[in-house]
Specification:
By secondary structure, the protein is of the alpha+beta class. It is built from eleven helices and ten strands. Strand 2 and strand 3 form a beta hairpin. Helix 4 crosses helix 6. The protein is rod-shaped. The C terminus is likely disordered. InterPro entries: Band7/mec-2_domain, Band_7, Band_7/SPFH_dom_sf, HflK, Membrane_HflK_N, Stomatin_HflK_fam. It is found in: Membrane.
């Protein structure tokens, strides 16, 4: 049976101590007995009184030493100390070993060099009434320990709530495609600016170092469809870049061909103009000769024209004035020969009149085989 069970249990350790019915000791009686001993010691004469004073002095000295030693503290290199005197701001202290009067001053160390993180995520409604899940992370640093400690009641909670408000405001004023695809950087920048405008009136003594857009995705029910849409947009951008690269590659070549064709056309134009001017000059030179002998000049012009026309054909002119004998010539070999085929034909057949293939039938003495052409007949393949 336990000693504290009801029913008159006599196993209570504070009862029957020393054979008497006794309860737990009283603290007032303990202190009274202690000071009574010091009083009795003082009643034994001067030595007892001095011993009592010495004990009190030692006790007070020990308490003073403990109080003095307890006042030493250390501020680390990355921290600044905010000193409060009787609960009111007193000063700020730099890193190092410091001392403060215990029970008078209190010190709150604040880290002012470390980069702190604050994340926020949640499902949000966009401007086009779609639901997206956004996760962003903020990095900040404390620049004013006093403002960080006393500007707001809980600065970390206030920052978290301000970040949530900024994200929801920006996402609520953006379309879903902008948040999920190519507008992520713009959204990140807008959230940063909105957060700055929210915390600026509070003057919390913090500086926003960076804002990271960690994730943005649609609800799981439509995730596959949005993945396909994003892949299609990426393919579109890729095709556009490939088309631009092809245009940059083909455009210089097209410009080169166009310039070459323009130059060729210009050269052809100049050639035709010069040829026409040459013909005009030639006819101007023939005009006096025509006035002197019109019929002879017409016949000569006719014969020269026919010589130029038939000089580019496969016809062979044979002089039949000395007889109508049929001649068999290796015409295929003659026509496939080089530019001296006319001279070869003249050497083979003395009476054969053919146009010169190199100078279009004109001899070196500017004469033409007009006499042979008048009384000749055209043979094609031995006819």
């Amino acid at each position: 049976m336990a000693w504290n069970e009801p029913g008159g249990n006599k196993n209570d350790p504070w009862k029957n101590r020393g054979g008497k019915d006794q309860g737990p000791p009283d603290l007032d009686d303990v202190f009274k007995n202690l000071f009574g001993k010091f009083s009795k010691g003082g009643g034994n004469g001067g030595s007892g009184k001095s011993m009592g004073k010495l004990g009190i002095s030692l006790l007070v000295g020990l308490l003073v030493v403990i109080w003095f030693v307890s006042g030493f503290y250390t501020i680390r290199e990355a921290e600044r100390g905010v000193v409060l005197r009787f609960g009111e701001f007193y000063t700020e202290v730099e890193p190092g070993l410091r001392w403060k009067p215990t029970f008078v001053d209190s010190v709150i160390p604040v880290d002012v060099q470390s980069i702190r993180d604050q994340a926020s995520s949640g499902s949000m409604l966009t401007e086009d009434e779609n639901v997206v899940r956004v996760q962003m992370e903020m990095q900040y640093r404390v620049v004013d320990p006093f403002r960080w400690t006393f500007a707001v009641e809980n600065p970390e909670t206030s920052l978290s709530q301000a970040l949530d408000s900024a994200i929801r405001y920006v996402v609520g004023h953006s379309e879903m495609d902008d948040v999920l695809t190519d507008g992520r950087e713009v959204t990140r920048q807008r959230v940063w600016e909105e957060l700055q405008s929210i915390i600026e009136p509070y003057n919390m003594g913090v500086s926003i170092i960076d804002m990271n857009f960690r994730d943005a995705r649609p609800p799981e029910e439509v995730k596959d469809a949005f993945d396909d849409a994003i892949a299609a947009q990426e393919d579109e951008q890729r095709f556009i870049r490939e088309a631009e690269a092809y245009a940059r590659e083909i455009e210089p070549r097209a410009r080169g061909r166009a310039n070459r064709m323009n130059e060729e056309a210009q050269a052809y134009k100049e050639q035709i103009i010069l040829e026409a001017q040459g013909e005009v000059a030639r006819f101007e030179e023939l005009l006096p000769q025509y006035e002197q002998a019109p019929q002879v000049t017409r016949d000569r012009i006719y014969l020269e024209t026919m010589e130029a026309v038939y000089g580019n054909t496969s016809k062979i002119l044979v002089d039949s004035q000395n007889g109508n004998s049929m001649m068999y010539l290796p015409l295929d070999k003659i026509m496939n020969s080089s530019g001296n085929s006319s001279q070869n034909l003249r050497n083979m057949v003395p009476n054969l009149q053919v146009p010169d293939l190199q100078n279009n039938g004109r001899g070196s003495n500017n004469t033409s085989p007009s006499s042979g052409l008048r009384n000749s007949r055209f043979n094609n393949g031995g006819e």
